[in-house]
Predict the 3D structure of the following.
Amino acid sequence: MMSELETARLDFSEGINAALEQFLSNNSPALLWEAMRYSVLSGGKRLRPRLMLAACSGLGGDINTAMPFACAVEMIHAYSLIHDDLPDMDDDDLRRGKPTCHIVYGSAMAILAGDALLNLAYEVMGGACLEHPENIGAMTAIARAAGAYGMVAGQVADILSENKIIDESELIYIHANKTAALIRACLEAGGVLSGADTRRLAHLSEIGENLGRAFQIRDDLLDVTLPTEELGKPALSDVKNNKTTYVSVFGLERAKKDCRALTERAAGLIEEIRLKDSALLQIVGGFSVNSR
Ligand code: GRG
């Protein structure tokens, strides 16, 4: 049984939040940086950076070297949420229990805050790569997963699928790209940053794919099982918006079963690579269908 101190040490959230505050400490133009900070620092589980640091630490890498990449991924994640919430995308008023960026700052400022976060992410990673050129592969993995080969492609497919009946393979394509690609890249980047060999990198990639898909199914499940106060956005919003989700296509029981199976597969693969600490397994433990 791990002590509370050890559990907190392997969670990494405190260090990530402190580093994010530093990267976002500029003030000019004031409104832009305020909107950027509002979107990054007002909550969030920090899942993606924690996964990256956990993979890196488990393979004996240096967390401090990995931190700029971990923060950059959280900035990219925040930009994607800001843009996803906009009226011309998902049109959401609430995120993490608070008004969305465009509700507070207006659509133009929200778009610009997202743009600025995306650019800052690459500036931060580029700076880190100047110091450690051997880590360029971490930045490339993240860039590929965040763009037209990953998250943006998934978002496009998601938008084009609205009000259409889609089949299993199309739904899996959307999940694999919109959600799982960036999560997978976090695991891969953690591996690159720790100097992992190709066998371990391939393992990390598969772990990320399974976890990413499980995470999206869990998100679909939570939409129909949690009340608004716990969700931080209106409950049943996917159902009300007529969205095609894993639950709407396969039903509640199959969604729970598949989420569990993907999580167990990820946990099994993690056991196989024999990490030095339990940080990654600790995060995966929180993926259970009934936990949040
Ligand atoms: C705008 C290019 C572009 C992409 C948007 C991320 C995304 C793609 C859409 C968000 C829609 C959504 C709810 C996807 C489900 C999975 C997901 C990304 C949930 C939110 O991530 P969490 O739970 O958020 O990690 P926190 O608040 O903890 O940071």
